[in-house]
Design a protein that fits this description.
135 residues; alpha+beta; Immunoglobulin-like; 6-stranded mixed sheet; 4-stranded antiparallel sheet; 10 strands; 41% strand
Length: 135
């Protein structure tokens, strides 16, 4: 069975088990699985909260993710876990994300692979500002 066929078979099985409609539609369209993501916070304030994190919420079932491959614009996830719906959530160190963004906006792309080797990707645009408070 080819990689594409394997991905389709996986998508059909998972979709049959009740995965989200968006995930199922993306799974059948290409060799790269397109997922929906939401970056939080939606505004990254440069230089404000050292020690904070940037969180990415997805519609991809956590059990299908090769957790060691999850990255945001090439920055490896500090941690990954399942949300209350069983979908992937990834956290990144704020300082690492600040190093790759600049005002006024940035597009952040979450990438990785599933446990069967299928690549996935999704992106979200965030606002980027410099800490407005006086030093």
């Amino acid at each position: 069975m080819t990689r594409r066929a394997t991905g389709i078979l996986t998508a059909v099985v998972v979709c049959g088990l009740g995965a989200s409609v968006a995930w199922c539609a993306g799974a059948l369209q290409s060799d790269v699985l397109t997922i929906a993501i939401q970056v939080s916070p939606s505004t990254i304030v440069l230089g404000l909260d050292k020690g904070s994190s940037v969180t990415v919420h997805t519609d991809l079932p956590f059990g299908m993710v090769d957790r060691g491959t999850v990255a945001l614009n090439g920055v490896a996830a500090a941690s990954t876990f399942a949300d209350s719906c069983g979908n992937l959530v990834a956290k990144f160190h704020q300082e690492d994300i600040e190093a790759i963004v600049a005002p006024p906006t940035a597009t952040l792309a979450l990438t990785g692979t599933t446990t069967d080797g299928t690549a996935f990707a999704g992106s979200d645009r965030v606002r980027v500002i410099v800490d407005p408070s006086p030093k």
